[in-house]
Amino acid sequence: MSGGAKGSRVVGPAAHAAGGSPWARTPRILIVRRRYLGDTVLMQPFVRNLRERWPGAWISMVVDTPYVEALASVEELDEIVELPVGIPGLDENLSRWKSVLGAVAAAPFDLAFDFQRNERAQFLLLLSRAGTRATLWPLGQPLRRRWAYTDVLEVTPEDVVALHTVDLNNRLLEMLGVPAPHRIPILPVSDEHRRPARTILEAHAAVAPPGQPLLMVHPGSGAPARRWPPGRFAEVADHAVEGHGARVVVLSGPGEKDLAATVVREMRRSAVMIETRSVPTLVGLLAEADLLLCNDSGPMHIAAAVGTPVCALYGAQSAVAWAPLGPAGHRTLQPSLPCGSACIGDGACVLGDPMRSLCVGRISVDDVTRAVDAQLGAGSASERSVTRNTVRPGADSTSISPRS
């Protein structure tokens, strides 16, 4: 059956897209988006669209343990179901799983959305007893147990890289006849976020005086190949100190302490390293920054969602699909692709696999410095507060292709 958004194909009933809604006025809705940090943050517009369509709906979302905190401030959710991952002890795991199964099976759902397409997610979809069970299927990737779904939106490989992930997710709603006007992730920042963050900054003497910007640097990323060299982050941070009087904080997430310490050690100017041990702490810290300089990563999406400008560096992955969204004047830098004779991988790159391609290393310090100069000249955090957490349409980021 043809239908849905241009470039995609609907396989399944999806009769509701053309006719009336078969769901209750206050449907029970289940979303399975187990991981990762950035992907979880990018689900917020999807949830907001559902809430706007059905103000009285019950909306429940299943997410892995490490990412539960990323959803804690998403007020459109009625329930966060924590899927146990990395919980020590068999008894504790069994207890957590019993809680998950009880939450999903407590009462039948009307709609269920699966963004994982693996065995556990499909089991939960079936357990939900939802009459409509929908997923996205990027063509060329395996879709096992197709029978677990009533509605499948086939997505072309071109759409996967040419559309933002938020827009791709929203197409699933549009397939079912649900309006999807919201596309900007917004994470509210409360005093409960700000107070601990300011205490941490004060303890590290990292509070920027009036008129001096606070630059935060996050050198990590989920895949080592997608990390810009730490020595180059150090060079740009030094320039920010010398050219803008910036205070520099280097953020360290789980398993990134050595990487962050390398940036601080290689800087000529003073900087501090702060380990972020929880998502609320990270939210609060990023809300205090004037700029986040980073690779494509989960903290990048959090910074954008709290209204902090981002300067993000990309390798072979799509800088369109994973761009920071929002009105804060983000910049993304990516070398021209494919690399061809300019490849720096020396046989280490795996063609077609962004997780194992070293293309981000082709971005020069000069290109990043120019982008940071432009952003740090655009105002302080207090000046940005009037627009923080506001929304306007569009993919509000500037893409820069550095010279090869």
List keywords for this structure.
alpha/beta; Rossmann fold; 2 domains; seven-stranded mixed beta sheet; 14 strands
Can you describe this structure?
The chain has 404 residues and is an alpha/beta fold. It starts with 7 loop residues before the first strand and ends with a strand. The protein has helices spanning 37-41, 44-53, 90-105, 119-128, 157-162, 165-175, 191-203, 230-244, 257-266, 279-288, 298-305, 365-376, 381-384; strands at residues 8-11, 28-32, 58-64, 79-83, 111-114, 132-138, 151-155, 214-218, 247-252, 272-275, 291-295, 310-313, 330-333, 397-400. The chain has two domains: 8-175, Glycogen Phosphorylase B (Rossmann fold); 192-400, Rossmann fold (3-Layer(aba) Sandwich), CATH 3.40.50. The chain has a seven-stranded mixed β-sheet, with helices on both faces. Helix 9 (257-266) links the parallel strand 9 and strand 10. The chain is built from 13 helices and 14 strands.
Helix-strand layout with pairing:
Layout: E1 8-11, E2 28-32, H1 37-41, H2 44-53, E3 58-64, E4 79-83, H3 90-105, E5 111-114, H4 119-128, E6 132-138, E7 151-155, H5 157-162, H6 165-175, H7 191-203, E8 214-218, H8 230-244, E9 247-252, H9 257-266, E10 272-275, H10 279-288, E11 291-295, H11 298-305, E12 310-313, E13 330-333, H12 365-376, H13 381-384, E14 397-400
Parallel strand pairs: 2-3, 2-5, 3-4, 5-6, 6-7, 8-9, 8-11, 9-10, 11-12, 12-13, 13-14
Antiparallel strand pairs: 1-7
